[in-house]
Structure formats: C-alpha cells, structure tokens
Design goal:
About 70% of the residues lie in helices and about 0% in strands. It is mostly helical and about 250 residues long. This is Pentatricopeptide repeat-containing protein. Keywords: Repeat. One of its GO terms (biological process) is RNA modification. GO terms for molecular function: RNA binding.
C-alpha cells in the first residue's frame, strides 16, 4: 500500500495491529507503533486501544499499561481490553484493580467488562471474587449470557465445587450449550469424580442427544468404575447411532 503511494490512515493501522495481536507478533506490532510515531499519527482512542491490545497479547503488559494510562478519555472498549490483557496472563489482581478504576470513572461496565473480569478470576482460581462479580451484574441491569455462565461453571468446577457448578447450570434461564457441559465434565475428570461425571454426562446427553462425545465420555466413566454392562449398553447405543471410536487399551 505504501509502496504504491497510498498513505495508511488510523483505520489501516488499527486493522494491522489487530492482525499482529491475533498472531502475537511483537516485532511487527512494534514496527507499526514506530511507523505511527514517525508519521505523526495522533494516538487517538482507537489507535491507542489497538496498541494496548497488541502489547498485552504479546506479553508486554508494562508497555500496554503505559499506553492505557496515557489515554485521557477512555471508553468501555479500552477499559475492557486492559482488563482482558491482565486476565489472560493470570494477573487477576491487576484486572480487578482496573475494573475498580473503571467503576470510579464515568464509563459504565458492560457485558464484555464482566466477561473479562470473570475470565481473570477463572484463570486465577478466585472463586469468591468471581461469584461477587457475577452477582454484581444485576446492579447494572445486565443479564449473564452463555459465556458468563461458562466462566462461572469453569471457575466452580476447577475449584472442586462440582455440585454448585451443576446447580448453576440447571438454574440457567437459557439452555446450556456443549461448552458448558464439557467444562463441567472436564472438572469431574480433574477431580476424579466418576460418579458425578456420569450424572453430568446424562444431563449433557439429554440436552444434546446428537453429541457423540458425551456417549464416549459416559462409557469411559462407567468403565473406570468397573460397570462393564452399563458401558456396553452405552457402546451399543453409540453403534446404533453410527458413532465410531478410536481403539484403546486398559490394564486391570
């Protein structure tokens, strides 16, 4: 584009920085940042936010925070990007700090804000804080969507609160998707709770009877408990559905 005499504008740079973020290319991102400064581009909110995102996704949180702090009039997107940046690197304390600063500003948190801070709590295993933020959505007249519920189920499941996670799924006002059930099943595996996993798998099959992965999971869970006949019944059902599994082996 430049070689043919066309000068990039802010939208061009934001788009390229987004590409750098997706592939976590710090070298290319820094080149675009240098180009913007050399060409005299004003670091408006869209370009600054794109730089915050790029540096955060490339692991340069100090640079990301420095640019973020320099933004005079932050909007919801810039706040959300900084919260997400800390969250993806497991720094939940800083993510929560940014959320508190946002709350004190004149910018109202939205669904993505809460998703970002819930994700941060999930990565850090902060159960009490995650529950608090989830409940706080009501204060802003926001309704949790599937992604918010998925974060909470993952957080509760990973911490061993399997029953609480199951209760949350069953109380959802929207139908849980495969990702939510899969997250809870993974938690059962992590905590080696096959009995609970079988119950969860049955719920999952009821919700999505065409998902062959649930049949494979529940058959394996039965086998782990030595309940061979029930495992064979599930495998017969799988064969009836035309589900094919990889060959495996076990030791007794």
């Amino acid at each position: 584009m430049v070689s043919e005499g066309f000068k990039p504008n802010v939208a061009t740079l934001v788009t390229i920085l987004s590409a750098c973020s997706h592939i976590a290319s710090l070298e290319k991102g820094e080149q675009i940042h240098s180009y913007a400064k050399d060409e005299g581009f004003e670091l408006d909110i869209s370009l600054s936010t794109a730089l915050v995102d790029m540096y955060a996704k490339c692991g340069q949180l100090d640079k990301s925070r420095k640019i973020f702090d320099a933004i005079k009039e932050k909007d919801a997107i810039s706040w959300n990007v900084m919260i997400s940046g800390y969250g993806m690197h497991g720094d939940a304390e800083s993510a929560i700090e940014i959320f508190q600063q946002m709350k004190q500003s004149n910018v109202r948190p939205n669904e993505l804000t809460f998703l970002a801070v819930l994700s941060a709590c999930t990565h850090a295993g902060l159960v009490r804080e995650g529950k608090c933020f989830f409940d706080r959505m009501r204060n802003y007249a926001l309704s949790p969507n599937l992604k918010h519920y998925s974060c909470m189920v993952d957080l509760l499941g990973r911490s061993g609160n399997l029953h609480e996670a199951e209760d949350l799924v069953l109380s959802m006002p929207i139908a849980p998707d495969g990702g939510i059930w899969g997250s809870l099943l993974s938690a059962c595996k992590i905590h080696n709770n096959a009995e609970f996993g079988i119950r969860v798998a049955k719920h999952a099959i009821e919700a999505d009877p065409e998902n062959e992965g649930y049949y494979v999971m529940i058959a394996d869970l039965y086998l782990s408990l030595g309940r061979w006949e029930e495992a064979e019944n599930v495998r017969a059902k799988m064969k009836e559905m035309g589900v094919r599994t990889r060959a495996g082996w076990s030791t007794v």
